[in-house]
Amino acid sequence: MAVLDVKDLRTVFQTRQGEVHAVNSVSFDLKPGELLGVVGESGSGKSVTMMSLIGLLPSPPARIRGGHVNFEGNNLLEISEDQLRSVRGAKIGFIFQDPMTSLNPVFTVGFQLMEPLRNHMGMTRKQARARAIELLQLVGIPDAGRRLADYPHQFSGGMRQRVMIAIALACDPKVLIADEPTTALDVTIQAQILELVKDLRHKLGMAIIWITHDLGVIAGIADRVLVMYAGQVVEHAPVRELFSNPQHPYTKALLETIPTVRGKRPDKLRVIEGQPPILYAPPSTCSFSDRCRHAFDRCRHANPQQVEIGPGHGVACVWNLSTGKPRHV
Hints:
The protein is α/β, with parallel strands linked by helices. Helix content is 31%, strand content 26%. A hairpin with a 4-residue loop joins strand 15 and strand 16. The two termini are 29 Å apart. The model has no long low-confidence stretch (mean pLDDT 89).
């Protein structure tokens, strides 16, 4: 049974130019203990989708236009703000991309770790301090007891990200959402954070949604992958299947942008020509058709629906990359 089940989620933003349809009928589920990777270019709707689930978008300009988010028998889109606050941070943790802007610079790390423990878990100050030290030790921060009194600027970038992970884990959430948590870090620190997340997942058994544009990261940690474009899931598959048998032209194009070295000289880097669309109306055609070398008339007359092409493998495309011919759907 899924720990999180999302159906037909739709989110819009009010702008001076009109409504921007940022999330368009997104559906997926998350199984207990699973690590689900969410990939796509900047502006594809990855972060907005996940922030929509737990009410982190400012309203206005954002507005949830429809959908169902089932978590522990409740639709998170319909519960009160107080109920949502009891879920957010306590049962669903969130790690943001930039810890320096997410951590409050005027409060100590200890205060920011202890606050959710006292608010959500009802701990005393002494209990919360002991748990905060335990959490900092869990994420690999040395001399944890002393460092509780330090402020965010006294930590390095990698250590700040570890603090963010500790805060997200404070109340033993069932689901952890990580929004590109290694993007601002150098490659050696990235590797340390990824190893930390793998280790914590094994120890704690939580389900994780990992948002990134880095397919190399996804290849190393994910069980299953959602590929997003223009606010839609265009392909989903187990990670090995996605890399070995991509069936959406956008997925294939993303994989081709990964740098490779064959022989003595590296291959020339490939790019995806064009830009993602700004959707001032719900997509009525394939949003990728203007950038797709396989597009034909049928792509420009209807928005393809997801079709299952194998166990756990779905794609929203009318072109079959395996046969080089249109699908009969």
